[in-house]
Amino acid sequence: MQRILVTGGAGFLGSHLCDRLLGEGHDVLCVDNFFTGSKRNIAHLLGHPRFELLRHDVTFPLHVEVDRIFNLACPASPVHYQHDPVQTTKTSVHGAINMLGLAKRLDARILQASTSEVYGDPEVHPQPEAYWGRVNPIGLRSCYDEGKRCAETLFFDYHRQHALDIKVVRIFNTYGPRMHPDDGRVVSNFIVQALRGQDITIYGDGRQTRSFCHVDDLLDAMTRMMDTERGFTGPVNIGNPGEFTMLELAERILQLVGGRSRLVFQPLPADDPRQRQPDIALARQALGWEPRIALEDGLRDTIAYFRTLLAEGQA
Ligand code: NAD
Ligand code: UDP
Ligand code: UDP
Predict the structure, then answer these.
(1) If you measure from the C-alpha of residue 74 to the centroid of ligand 1, how many angstroms do you get, rounded to a whole number?
(2) Domain holding 138: CATH number?
(3) Is the pTM of this model over 0.85?
């Protein structure tokens, strides 16, 4: 059993990761500044004897003793990461430097939650890890995309320069319970709009595509990656290759929720990628993993979560 640090542990993915690691018998130290995370996500863990919570911003040094580090701290939705873009870049870059410095002092294994956004608006489809991407360095999404790219650079330089034991996963769009109801991501937006009987907001013509992975599948892959042998660094794509247009997603959610919502079309945000689908050949081979949860099933449990949230008046 290990002492494991999860940065961003009060967020959507981080809180599920804390649950899972505690379930496996580990000691978990959750570090979060609650920028986008919430106490609600981890409230059920607060009395757990192997769980500890520290309010801390990873852009500042952190001196703790752990065996492994999952570095997830960073706002992930465009609405949130564009709210204070300078802080977003700092979180990715200074946060990575501090967590890598911590890992170096402890010789601890460290995993970075990178993103499909490192591929930008891709001209290779689906995207394999060897693709270098097409990212606008000065656009509205750059604080996130370039911050994450620089974090990858830092991980690989600490690996080469200091022989650090690193793992990098590139996460594609992931959804599930505990997504933030107001974070503006497409799955949470469409579900909350459908449940409230409001119009469903399609940006652009709705023919842009994304591939949606359920959080349970995602965490299977992420924890498998953490357990791979030393020297296997990745990056490894994690996502569900099932690709859907935003119009298809809206239709599926409307079918499952019912109700009378209409589709309304709004302008496409700047630099919004046209299409995205992970090539997961490497994850299949190196992690023996592939996603199992079909979109329809995953949407059902996400809808149930938001239904409860609305009923409690929390959304
Ligand atoms: P989230 O916004 O729910 O969680 C991020 C967490 O990090 C929050 O709890 C937030 O309070 C915390 N945080 C932000 N800045 C911090 C700082 N400076 N110091 C300490 N804590 C800080 O987002 P998520 O969807 O759970 O994403 C988790 C990680 O996975 C992020 O690094 C994100 O970039 C990555 N990722 C997520 C997706 C996805 O689809 N959900 C896709 C690709 C990559
Ligand atoms: N750091 C940290 N916790 C530690 C060790 C280091 O937060 O336990 C930070 C440290 O403050 C520094 C960063 O990690 O800013 C990088 O550390 P490293 O040792 O790589 O570089 P240096 O300290 O030489 O700048
Ligand atoms: N989107 C949409 N309506 C919404 C929110 C998002 O049509 O209410 C679109 C958005 O323009 C993008 C896609 O859905 O093309 C996925 O957006 P999200 O913010 O979830 O993820 P990302 O763009 O970071 O992949």
Answers:
(1) 4
(2) 3.40.50.720
(3) yes
